[in-house]
TrEMBL record:
<protein>
    <submittedName>
        <fullName>Arsenate reductase ArsC</fullName>
    </submittedName>
</protein>
<dbReference type="GO" id="GO:0046685">
    <property type="term" value="P:response to arsenic-containing substance"/>
</dbReference>
<feature type="domain" description="Phosphotyrosine protein phosphatase I">
    <location>
        <begin position="76"/>
        <end position="201"/>
    </location>
</feature>
<dbReference type="InterPro" id="IPR036196">
    <property type="entry name" value="Ptyr_pPase_sf"/>
</dbReference>
<dbReference type="InterPro" id="IPR023485">
    <property type="entry name" value="Ptyr_pPase"/>
</dbReference>
<dbReference type="Pfam" id="PF01451">
    <property type="entry name" value="LMWPc"/>
</dbReference>
<keyword id="KW-0059">Arsenical resistance</keyword>
<dbReference type="Pfam" id="PF21234">
    <property type="entry name" value="Phosphatase-like_N"/>
</dbReference>
<dbReference type="InterPro" id="IPR048716">
    <property type="entry name" value="Phosphatase-like_N"/>
</dbReference>
Length: 207
């Protein structure tokens, strides 16, 4: 880890400490931040972005842990999971956030997360006015899965975690990896249909 990266992580830790004041102490925040950094360091080909990715993922993990410890706001959380977190789950999360607004929350993760999002997935979503270009593939962690109300799996099979008592949905969808934009469009449209149905089930109005 370079000196610049160390400085960036210290800055990130201070930001997270300010956001989670009264909820988590410095030790917990730094532990989540550094373990998140280590997970991305093993995969990333762009070291300069590692502190930013680590901070964003640590923030999500801390929100999940806070929810498990009773800090709930009443909004349902859906976790979308596939193998690489580069196509299907990212498109599903994009649609969910776009349609649900702040009335529900969506996360995503992969069992073997990739280094970047599928460009065809990004382009197909842009055609619908949804920008997922700033998202990034990420793993799942125990607290994230446990904090979700619904876990939607897409092709990760036995690699997806299963916790007793949690609601699971398995969506059989073609993998957009290696496909052209034209071939990804039908997958995108089917994902939108299923996300809209899920929002109806959760009684979350879609915009």
């Amino acid at each position: 880890m370079s000196v610049d990266q160390q400085h960036a992580l210290l800055t990130a830790a201070r930001r997270l400490a300010g956001e989670f004041t009264g909820t988590f102490g410095t030790e917990t925040i730094e532990r989540f931040l550094h373990t998140s950094y280590d997970q991305f360091a093993a995969h990333s080909t762009i070291p300069n972005y590692l502190p930013l990715l680590a901070e964003r993922f640590a923030r999500q993990r801390l929100h999940a842990l806070a929810r498990l410890e009773g800090h709930r706001d009443g909004r349902p959380i859906v976790l979308f999971m596939c193998v690489h977190n580069a196509g299907r789950s990212q498109m599903a999360m994009g649609f969910f956030r776009h349609l649900a607004g702040d009335r529900a929350r969506a996360w995503s993760g992969g069992s073997e997360f990739a280094t970047e999002i599928n460009p065809a997935a990004v382009a197909s979503m842009a055609e619908r006015g949804i920008d997922i270009s700033k998202e990034f593939p990420k793993p799942w962690t125990e607290e994230i899965v446990r904090a979700a109300d619904v876990v939607v799996t897409m092709g990760c099979g036995d690699a997806c975690p299963v916790y007793p008592g949690k609601r699971y949905l398995d969506w059989e969808l073609d993998d957009p990896a290696g496909r052209s934009l034209e071939d990804v469009r039908p997958i995108r449209d089917e994902i939108e249909r299923r996300v809209r149905d899920l929002l109806d089930e959760l009684e979350v109005p879609a915009t």
